[in-house]
Structures are given as C-alpha cells and as structure tokens.
Specification:
The protein has about 425 residues and is an alpha+beta fold. About 30% of the residues lie in helices and about 30% in strands.
Length: about 425
C-alpha cells in the first residue's frame, strides 16, 4: 500500500506529445508522466507512476508462475563469450549481441536472453532424473541491439522481461508443462485486461522446433496475424485457404506480440553439456522449454487496449493507485483541511491513493489530468460534497455522492 500527494510526485503530466511518438501508448505514457522521453533510441526511464504499474504487472506474473511450480532466480546480465560460443550464438544472434571487453580484454555480452546462462547453471545442479522436472524463472533486464526502435515501450533496446525455463526428462513431460504455461499466460493477459490470439510462430535464433506467440489484435500493431472468424485458431505464418481447425473463414489483422513460448528440446543441453542419469543408469540430455514476456511492452499494450480520447483507462489490477482524490474549492484552505482528513482515513483503511492537493490549479485542469493518468476511481472533495465525496469511475460518466465509509467499502471490494 502506498499513498502520494500529487504536489510531491516526481514526473508530471505534459500537454504536448513528442514528435517521435506515433503509437497511442507512447503518447499517453509520456503525457501521463509514466515514462520520460528516450535518452537515446529505444532507451527509456520509468517514472514513479510507470514503475508502480510495472511492479503490479510483475506481481501478477509472479503469482501465475509460482502457481505452476516456478522458482524465482536472478541471473547475470554480463555474460562471458565462452558460453555463447558453446551454443554457437556469439556470431549468429538476431538482433546481434551488445559486446564489450573488460580491462583484461575478456569479452562479454549484455544478455539479450538467458538460455546459455540458465543451462550452464542447471548443468551444475541437475544430475539425476530425481532432480527433474524443474522450473526456474526470473524478472530481469534484457538488451536487444535493435536496428529500429519504435512505438515507445513496444520496441526498445533495454527492457525488463520475465523468462521462465523448464527442464524435463522427456518430450512428453515438456509437452504437458508447455500446455500449463500457455494456460498461465492466458490468465496473466486476462488479469491485465485483454485477451490474445495464440499463433504458431517461427523460433528464430532462440531455436527449437515448436513455438507460439501471444498476439493482441490492435490497429497500431507491427505484426500481422491470420485468425479464424469462428474458432480460436490463428497463425502468423502465410495465410491458409481456410481454418486448419474448423474450416472457417480466415481474417487478417495487425497485432502486438506479448509473449513467446518455445519447445527447445535438447538444443542447449547438448551444446552446453547439461545431462542427467535416467532410471536405467543411462546419461541423457535434459529436455528444455523457455517462455518469455516483455513487461514494458505488456504495459504499453494495456494502454493500447484501454484508453479513450482523454487518456489512459487502467484496469484495476495494474493501476498505479486505486483512487485519485481531488480537492476543488474557491475556499481552498477550508476544504483542504477536510480533504487532508479524508486522505488520512483512506491511508488508514489501506487504500492506495494519489491525492491531488495542489492549490491554484483549476478544477478543469485537475479533472483533465485525472482522466489522462487514468486511475480507476476519482474521488472529489468540494463545497458541494460537504463531509462526503463524489465517486466517479474513469470508464463512466456517472457520478454519485457517497459517505467516506461507503467509498472505502467499495474500494476494498474492488
């Protein structure tokens, strides 16, 4: 739980949109004070409001990964060249790795992904079939040497990603867990406020014979997806004549990718020397899967899915605060005392609240900024409300006057 006075908040709203901002999410995240303008192509700072949303998304992901047996770890960003040489990806990654040398001329890469590091780690701990299956995940910085960084947080060069890695004794066990991860991903995206199309996808330089992407249909998306008008079948490959599942008509749309899952098989375990001894005493390569979600991109996609002409409309689950308390009055000092008391009672009740306590700012400006920021509930204190508050949902035009107790009860119940 956290409360904040707007007058003390670092990072304020902006009236103008940067010239380079084209995607709706890019425009609104900058104007709403969630991120700063890029300091270089595809490199952004998250401001307090944006970081709070980011952490809410992280927590949703953690809960769903823990629910399917994941154990959280934290792996190095700085990765030695020899690990990437073992997997034959030092010279073959797309986009290419960010490479650097230390003062001893030893070569490293900034991790764009962590298959090499996690497989090397697993090889030291997994010895027997009794150690399997194992599921490890992390939430960590990634660095992608993109040729073109566009769309704000939708395509960046540095970002935070959740990557889960699974280790198995057989392809059958991998298949079963792969399905569990897909269901967990569906829950994550549903909790974040939207649904996705699951498409067959190319594995690229990550590898493996089977992979799927999670796509949200969106006019501003950079990816193209073909999907059935009748069932849930979809693909990002070439357009088929008809649905491969039910024979229905195929439609085409633009989409934003928000997750990618791979059946790696034994690609990395063989090259990195990760083996286990089976029940018969025979040495076998560990069967692996990997599963990723870019959290900044997910945050931007939520905005793409939830906004209007006035600003963001955050779902309750990821909103930076539960309530936005606004004080408006011609007798500021008198009303401020009352609103300060209400602010204190909201905090005491465990409500996350942003309190617009600014003086000499018009009601119109405060309301416009509240709409832009997009916190789900706006509570207004004024001469009209007296000892009560005006309740308004961001996604509705309806207002009602409630006692503070009633407002707290409604906030507590979601």
């Amino acid at each position: 739980m956290m409360a904040m006075r707007y007058s003390q908040l670092f990072g304020k709203t902006q009236k103008r949109t940067p010239k380079e901002a084209e995607a709706i999410s890019h425009k609104l995240l900058i104007r709403g004070g969630f991120i700063d303008r890029q300091i270089s192509a595809g490199i952004y700072s998250l401001l307090p409001l944006g970081w709070r949303v980011h952490r809410k998304i992280e927590n949703i992901i953690r809960e769903e990964m823990d629910a399917i047996g994941g154990q959280e770890v934290f792996l190095p960003t700085l990765q030695p060249k020899e690990l990437w040489v073992k997997s034959d990806r030092w010279e073959h990654m797309d986009p290419p790795l960010f490479k650097l040398k230390d003062r001893h001329e030893k070569e490293f890469a900034l991790g764009s992904t962590h298959e090499e590091v996690i497989t090397d780690l697993a090889a030291r701990f997994i010895k027997s079939y009794k150690d399997l299956p194992l599921y490890l995940y992390q939430i960590q910085n990634k660095f992608r040497n993109e040729m073109r960084s566009t769309g704000g947080l939708l395509r960046v060069r540095e970002f935070i990603m959740m990557d889960l890695y699974s280790f198995h004794t057989s392809e059958k066990d991998l298949d079963d867990y792969y399905k569990k991860v897909i269901e967990a991903y569906k829950k994550i995206f549903t909790r974040c406020g939207f649904t996705t199309k699951i498409v067959e996808a190319a594995s690229g330089t990550i590898g493996g014979e089977v992979s799927h992407e999670f796509m949200m249909l969106c006019p501003t998306g950079e990816d193209k997806v073909y999907f059935c008008s009748k069932c849930d079948w979809a693909t990002s490959k070439e357009k088929p004549g008809k649905c491969q599942k039910c024979g229905g008509k195929i439609e085409v749309g633009k989409a934003i990718e928000n997750g990618h899952v791979f059946k790696l098989g034994t690609k990395y375990s063989k090259s990195m020397g990760a083996y286990f001894v089976d029940k018969g005493g025979n040495k076998q390569p560990i069967v692996m899967g990997c599963y990723g979600i870019g959290i900044g991109r997910l945050m931007a996609t939520i905005v793409e899915a939830h906004h209007d002409e006035r600003g963001v409309i955050w779902p309750n689950s990821v909103a930076p605060f539960q309530a936005h308390l606004v004080v408006i009055s011609n007798q500021q000092s008198v009303i401020s005392k009352s609103s300060d008391e209400i602010y204190g009672k909201l905090i005491k009740a465990g409500i996350d609240v942003l309190y617009d306590d600014r003086q000499d700012v018009s009601a119109g400006e405060k309301f416009a900024e509240a709409d832009l920021i997009g916190i789900p509930i706006r509570l207004v204190v004024s001469e009209k409300t007296k000892d009560k508050v005006e309740w308004k949902r961001r996604d509705s035009e309806k207002t009602e006057i409630l006692t503070l107790g009633q407002a707290i009860e409604k906030l507590a119940n979601g």
